[in-house]
Amino acid sequence: MSFNYISTYNLFSPLRFSITRNQSALSRATTEATTGRFADVGLELGHATGLDLGMRAEFSFADQIVDTNGLASGRLEVIQDRITKLGTTAQDFLKSLITVRNTGVVGAQSILPTAAAGLQDLIGSLNVSYNGSFVFAGLNTQTAPLTNYAPGSTSKIAADAAFATFFGFSQASPAVSGITAVQMQTFLNTTFDGEFVSNLPPPPALPGPWNTKWSSATDTVLTSRISTTEIADTSVSANDPSFRKLAEAYTALSDLGTTSMSQGAFDAVLDKAVNLVTSALNGLATLGGNIGATQKRISDSSDKLKRHQDILNEQILAIEKVDPADAAARVSALQNQIETSLSLTARLQRLSLVNYL
Fold first, then answer.
1. Is the pTM of this model over 0.85?
2. How many whole angstroms separate alpha carbon 84 and alpha carbon 96?
3. Which end of the chain has fewer surrounding CB within 10 Å, N or C?
């Protein structure tokens, strides 16, 4: 024999459980009606959850590459701008060099400030930063790549020492006027060229004077993944030969005592500078072309990735999509059930045996 107890507790319990269960279901239904997708994707999709997660991971990976491409594009835009400006300055400088040939001291005096300004402009341009990183520093992005050329700097000390070692006196000595064209050509093509060498040939592979006196940049540049299958160089090193040749030409005409030289020695410096600047301009054109090609690759890759994301998004929505009309109907039905349960609970709370005794 069994006994069924009639009590307010037994009457309240089913209603209480029903309200709790319906409130949880209402929360899920409200979320689905608002977002248009399942509140619990794993529960609804079951074995198809792996496919959904795979597509979402692929979408996220593509999104990361697109963001990286945006940073790389900004960095390359800054680099391209600096290369263009350096090329314009070098082109104007080359024209000036041609006009001052055979003008002696007057020509040397007129070209000296232009050369000094060109050197400072080169250093400033290569020390530019973008988004907190020095874009011409190679992998050493937290340090300005070039030292300033000024009294006491390692680059200035090295140039002075090279001149004094070769000739036996400084650039400010009156003896500069006695340097012959042949002596100057020999100095420029040997000792002075050596000051702008980046890497000495192996073995062993030791850094050249440029790396120890002028630059802290690495020869290795930054690379970025620009698509799921492509990696591209997305920076330029200050150690590039074009920049070193410009630095050599500007330094030769601004700090080798040209205003005191004989016409022959001065013309030797001019001829060397013309060759250096001409070669540097060709190198800058190649650099600019390579940067432009990389920019195009990045742009095309980002467009392709965005189209792929659109396709993935449509597929994800198709899997996770909830019928809004059905979700809204469930919300309404659950709200009515909860309200009914609360109403019954309120009535049961007013029941008392006292009223019937």
1. no
2. 19
3. N
